[in-house]
Task: structure prediction
Amino acid sequence: MTPGARAWYTARVFIPDAITVERGAEDAPMVRRCRERAPGVPLTVVGDRREVMRALAGDFRAAKRHLVLAPRRGPFLEHCPGGTRGVACCSYLVLNLASNCPMDCQYCFLQEYLTHNAPLTAYVNPEAALAEVAEILDRHPDRMFRIGTGELADSLALDPLTGLSRDIVPFFAARSNVLLELKTKTTAVDDLVGLDPRERVVVSWTLGPPATVAMAEEGAPPIAARLAAARRVVAAGYKIGVHLDPLIEHPGWEEGYRGLVAAIADAVPVERLAWVSMGGLRLTPGLRATVRERFPGTALLAGEQVLMPDGKWRDFQPLRVRMYRRIRSWIEAAAPGVPVYLCMETPEVWAKVFGTPPLPDRALGALLAAR
Amino acid sequence: MTIETLIAQRTATWTDEERVALGTVVEALRPSPRHLTDILDWLDDIAARERVRPAAALADRDLQAVLRFRGAQADRLKRWKERLRRLRYPRLAAREAAIADLVRTMDLGSAIAVMPPPALEGGLVTFAIAVRSTGEFAAALERLREGFARGDVGRLFALLDEA
Result:
């Protein structure tokens, strides 16, 4: 098996090198499921999960292959960190059910964000997370929420082990004022397709042209496999979201993204496509340094990126605008009527791309939640 | 981090000949660690894009020529980095040069300064008028009006719009 094929196989049926359970969580249903579904993986019990953090400190790659099962003690819900000063925001809530991801995308902000807390972790107390969500939904019955689990982790990468979707999809399917987004690059939809989302769950795929997947998404399934998984969940009654994020400017990007948009339109009926987002490649100085160190010679950093006032490096503005406009026109031709929005972009870029300023935060969120 | 440590860390995979070429640049320009980090980052980025060795860009004729200039070291370092930046950011640098050319051809006179946004980000162009009298102010306004009527201002914003 070639390294590339092995990496893809690994992502499809991720099996960790080891599992560590924090003492007290041994009998949690998620732990039992993981033991059943990965019976050959060595499992140890420790008094404190930080023992794993210390043991794997400095080895981010190894930390992605060591699964920690422990309760989350802080809040599960938070506002999307994308809504920083100076960029348009879509009022998204993030539900943190796991931390880190078995795939190793070069551009991933988790390389910097989780430097000191790297081990792949699934929280064994999802019932507490759902209680927190129920409380906020019940408190604001007239407001429509969008909540996603794919910010600090891939929403589905661990699902073949944890079976978490069986807990959370029925919960959200029974609620009227929320849309759950499961954001993934994987094909791990076996549990999902047996559940009834009742129009309350969007499964989103992060997609890029084959050239950028090969360049920057180690261990992630090929685009054709992701779209095949999307077809399966459409057939099971789910809506689909698409995130063209990060857009990576590279030789041949126009053919690449044009072909990708055509492939998406071929795989997903327009009426089942909830939204398409676009976001330019953005890297903090710290993340750039990490990428340079972890992936020497990567072409990811060879684009014409400059430091912006918000402290992130992005392709210089006229280049981003050109990409957004072209890709937007292909999306609108292939999938008319589907909302297209920009993630973490400035109001002036938004105005150049769409001809109008961005909607106020709540209004954009409401528009997307109503899909 | 010292210059020596930085070079040792960043050129571990370079050949002796390539390290000598970098050494010549460091000797001639005496960059600070921060400037040298920029230089090494840009060499790596050019190499990744052009699929060449990181040291390949050091052979650029214009870069070599700057090393031979007389004058203050700081000025030579500035010119050398500007040239390397043009190699690292060819489209951005070309667009910046096109804007500078246009501003020159607008011929707005010494009372008016036109400042495009840094690195072309943000879309905000500043037109500054510096005058000492009502007459100078009226003359500056007239030159701006003429430039606007010729379509110069429109061309300027078009250059900032899309690449």
Notes: Strands of chain B lie at 112-115, 126-129. Chain B has a mean pLDDT of 95. Helices of chain B lie at 3-10, 16-29, 33-50, 61-68, 73-88, 90-106, 134-150, 152-161.
